[in-house]
Amino acid sequence: GCTVGDLLAREGKLSESKALLIAEAVASALNYAWEKARIIHCDVKPDNVLIATDGTVKISDLGLARSLDRLAENPNKTLIWGTPNYVSPEQAQGVEDLDCRSDIYSLGAMLYHMVTGKLPFAGSPGSSAMDKHISDFLTDPYDLDSSLSAGVVWLIEKLMIKDRAARPASWTSVGFDLAEVIQGYMPHA
Q1: Catalytic residue selected from 43, 136, 143, 177
Q2: Which phi-psi region, left, alpha or beta, contains residue 121 (left: φ > 0; alpha: ψ -120 to 50)?
Q3: What gap in Å lies between CA 156 and CA 79, rounded to an integer?
Q4: Angle at alpha carbon of residue 114, lines to 108 and 116, rounded to 5°
């Protein structure tokens, strides 16, 4: 198979339906990791999502993944970083009490990249991209591709809310919203 990053390099961007199905599979896998072991991936991005030859979507590269139980046992190891163009604002700020909402934000950034073909905060190197996740806003996906549905645009905005308290609080909620958008509906407010 290949990575979603490989697909983006070849195709420029993915169809909305393909991107949503990939995002749904990623959300399901991350929900499992969160529910079973309180694991946060910390580096959700196209290069860490594999598409097998049979179409199965798999998450890879758990090198930055952290278990909340282990973080609680060793609080001096709580600094978690990911790839600058996909990190959540709280990751970029070095917040210690991360949870699944950080990966939810990163999935939103990945979905943005998949449907627009634009890397979030492209052209901003390293820490500059992380700073932009804290204080700047991405170009509206609809402005980059007017064929995108209102549902997918709203979903991206919902997943990428800068204030994590306003972001979806669970993968179950994200899965429900993805299913709604796949069916042509709007995500819940």
Answers
A1: 43
A2: left
A3: 26
A4: 95
CA atoms in the 13 A half-sphere facing the CB of 107: 33
Q: From CA 104, how far away is CA 114, in angstroms rounded?
A: 15
Model-level pTM?
A: 0.92
pLDDT digits (tens, 9 = 90+) for 150-175: 999 999 999 999 999 999 999 999 99
Distance, C-alpha 38 to centroid of its chain: 17
Q: How many residues does the chain have?
A: 189
The answer to whether 43 is a known catalytic residue is yes
